[in-house]
């Protein structure tokens, strides 16, 4: 009895440790913030971005300059991994192709060995081979029937057909992009027509308050060919400025320009907690009107 109780005690302790470890992982995912940073010089076309989690143990870095292409990667404990690296993906693809080639060579060698064994059996038993050769004597008749009917085997698609088939693929790609844009505009219009803006706007404001940039430093000069558009953009951005009081945010509009441009530098940093995104998703899914809207999108 004492042995059974000790076994149950050890099992309970192990299960409790597993449960606590699971809860610790869930708490880290929900409450440990994902920090983001970004900076850029628009005229020099230099941009940097970084997303980090767990005190920088896991990071995503991206950098773009005018002279170089976009570089990005995932870093764990400060060392770059090959998860998103195109070069590493090509190396993995080459290794996979080499393994498949070796596998095909082994299968080919096995097939040749089996064929050699079958040939040796035919040489050892010539009488049986003669009997087997006499059986399929009707095959030429079948060939004659195909020649008499005038049917020919189907031909494979040549290079001319492939080149003509390439143009419809490009047209289909453009049409797919256009359909996606139309679908997004239809969704926005449906949200406005079904009075969902009043339902979603408070929740979106609350979410933006939690994920907003904690630090925003910028010196930007911008202008549009239409002065009214410049005024609308200035009004929208000024609303954020007065709402969150970014003291180092300098915005200079140009109402006299005839071209559309934006110049200057910026720095941005903040953090996001997964728990806030989860609360936002559950809050909008709890509303019947929004669920009915999602169902109507699925039906359409």
TrEMBL record:
Residues 86-168 are annotated as: Disordered. Residues 122-141 have a biased composition (Basic and acidic residues). The chain crosses the membrane at residues 6-32. It comes from the Bacteria. Residues 90-103, 111-120 have a biased composition (Basic residues). Keywords: Membrane, Transmembrane, Transmembrane helix. This is DUF2953 domain-containing protein. The lineage of its organism: Bacteria, Bacillati, Bacillota, Clostridia, Eubacteriales.
